[in-house]
Amino acid sequence: MSAPLRVVVADDQALVRTGFRLILMADGIDVVAEAANGEEAVEVVLRTRPDIVLMDIRMPELDGLEATRRILTGAPDAPRVIMLTTFDLDDLVYAALAAGASGFLLKDVTPEHLVAAVRLVRTGDALLAPAITRRLVERHAHTTPPAPNTTAHRDLQTLTPRELEVLQLLAQGLSNAELAERLHLSETTVKTHVGRILAKLQLRDRVQAVVTAYETGLVSPKTAG
């Protein structure tokens, strides 16, 4: 029998923390600690070594973005971080995804979706809601184009033509099944391509792949439509 998932819940609202803890524990997920601000979140994560962190994006003392950066920077065994937000186009959420967060949830998420999201991210996949994530990335690619990332551009040159094609479609929010159908490949082959893309570009998951595709100019809001 596998060990239960270990989760830290970081939110400045006690009611939110309690609600999430009860939902997760009712499904056999172990909430090992709670935090009321970003400073506490960093401290308890380093102390308890959870699998997943549910991180409110806007907290006092240290916001969720900076806390996420501190948790993920230079830590090969860092937990997966899921951002919590009250609205889906929060500017800080985009920055958190670029910093390595594995996705985000709205705070009014249903109990079933919360549990499913935590279990999905634990498997190494990303919590990528195609429509919302793509809209978020496109908004920032359109309003605040980042400076050219020469390292990322250079890394893209290591991808094969097929891998570049997969990355472009991935950035449009296609699932593995949809990619397989579009490219006339098996889902297993698609998973292999995605895995190689992540490895070559040194990305944690599909969310970072989407961000990278936009920030390097491989995909733009116009071409992704």
TrEMBL record:
<dbReference type="InterPro" id="IPR058245">
    <property type="entry name" value="NreC/VraR/RcsB-like_REC"/>
</dbReference>
<protein>
    <submittedName>
        <fullName>Response regulator transcription factor</fullName>
    </submittedName>
</protein>
<dbReference type="GO" id="GO:0003677">
    <property type="term" value="F:DNA binding"/>
</dbReference>
<keyword id="KW-0238">DNA-binding</keyword>
<feature type="domain" description="HTH luxR-type">
    <location>
        <begin position="152"/>
        <end position="217"/>
    </location>
</feature>
<dbReference type="InterPro" id="IPR000792">
    <property type="entry name" value="Tscrpt_reg_LuxR_C"/>
</dbReference>
<keyword id="KW-0597">Phosphoprotein</keyword>
<keyword id="KW-0804">Transcription</keyword>
<dbReference type="InterPro" id="IPR011006">
    <property type="entry name" value="CheY-like_superfamily"/>
</dbReference>
<dbReference type="InterPro" id="IPR039420">
    <property type="entry name" value="WalR-like"/>
</dbReference>
<keyword id="KW-0805">Transcription regulation</keyword>
<dbReference type="GO" id="GO:0000160">
    <property type="term" value="P:phosphorelay signal transduction system"/>
</dbReference>
<dbReference type="GO" id="GO:0006355">
    <property type="term" value="P:regulation of DNA-templated transcription"/>
</dbReference>
<feature type="domain" description="Response regulatory">
    <location>
        <begin position="6"/>
        <end position="122"/>
    </location>
</feature>
<dbReference type="Pfam" id="PF00196">
    <property type="entry name" value="GerE"/>
</dbReference>
<dbReference type="InterPro" id="IPR001789">
    <property type="entry name" value="Sig_transdc_resp-reg_receiver"/>
</dbReference>
<dbReference type="Pfam" id="PF00072">
    <property type="entry name" value="Response_reg"/>
</dbReference>
<feature type="modified residue" description="4-aspartylphosphate">
    <location>
        <position position="56"/>
    </location>
</feature>
